[in-house]
């Protein structure tokens, strides 16, 4: 973002971008929270719940700002609980089902690596509010990445059974990683204004980070073939409705309920 | 209009230094380094607070505790503001706060080791040990090992001492 200019960005583009960031954190945070009370060990249960907590905290910052930018009086809660699937902008990767512990960690690692690089780039955003949230979140995400990277190496380079499961998880999730690096017209508008990096520009760093960890984990990196996409435009998989049924039930059934 | 005598900001800092952290009550909000500023905007007291972790559930309680403590001291007009940048770091925990943590059984963060978003090379990654020596807060031994990167609250990790065998919390560095 060194070529940052002062090009004005449309309010719509800014709102969309903020919901993309916020919805990634919201949906992954919800997915990870599904592990609460079910993890293979107490320490992992605590670790996953804390990771979910960080992500939900970041959701509040992103969606809070999105509501402010939109100027229609919608709060972060309102955006999280009262939008339907077509209005959510998270990538498909984060809505993938948890599967086993290994699959949850592989999804986390692939996302954390992107999330870390994205937030580092956003620390230099021309929009001060975005740079501040990114600065805060990047510290938490560096910690998430440290952990998910460590665990996929230990499980990949572990027993025959853990290795098999990690390779299966990687093969299954790989086709959902490409969407993180595909830019569209909206991204171009943000890049021109120096607000966000070009999605494609994060790919070399991600490939290096992920490639190095996978090789240490003795896992075979799948080739970049067909990549699923659509989440950034609100086109989701069949899992999204189930996630929202769980996530939004209370506010839908008892509007305005608080505790 | 009657003139209102406002307290000095150093009085307010003193009062805030007596408000305990809701999750680790041995240290105060001032020890934790989350009070950024105390100032008067006309006759309204403005206290600027920074979150430790963006999802820390204690944040709302902390704001309530500040309001209650200051109202008890007679402050009627109060505004709390959130400041995200520069992001809070464990390096801001006061020296006094670190000693209080240790005495309470929580290993304080090693000073000056906040990760600052850079991934450290981890020496003994596969054995689960980090390259930092975390001293046991109970017996002082340096023979400790990490159990989990996360602990009982978002700001802590779990360790155990291999000499006195006690598990303990470590205030992780960010």
Automatic annotation (TrEMBL), chain A:
Pfam families: PaaA_PaaC. GO terms for cellular component: cytosol. This is Phenylacetic acid degradation protein. It comes from Rhizobium altiplani. Gene3D superfamilies: 1.20.1260.10. One of its GO terms (biological process) is phenylacetate catabolic process. InterPro entries: Aromatic_CoA_ox/epox, Ferritin-like, Ferritin-like_SF, PaaA_PaaC, PaaC.
From TrEMBL, chain B:
Residues 10-71 form the MIP18 family-like domain. It holds the Pfam family FeS_assembly_P. Residues 128-172 form the PaaD zinc beta ribbon domain. InterPro entries: Fe-S_Maturation_MIP18, FSCA_dom_sf, MIP18-like, PaaD-like, Zn_ribbon_PaaD. This is Phenylacetate-CoA oxygenase subunit PaaJ. It comes from Rhizobium altiplani.
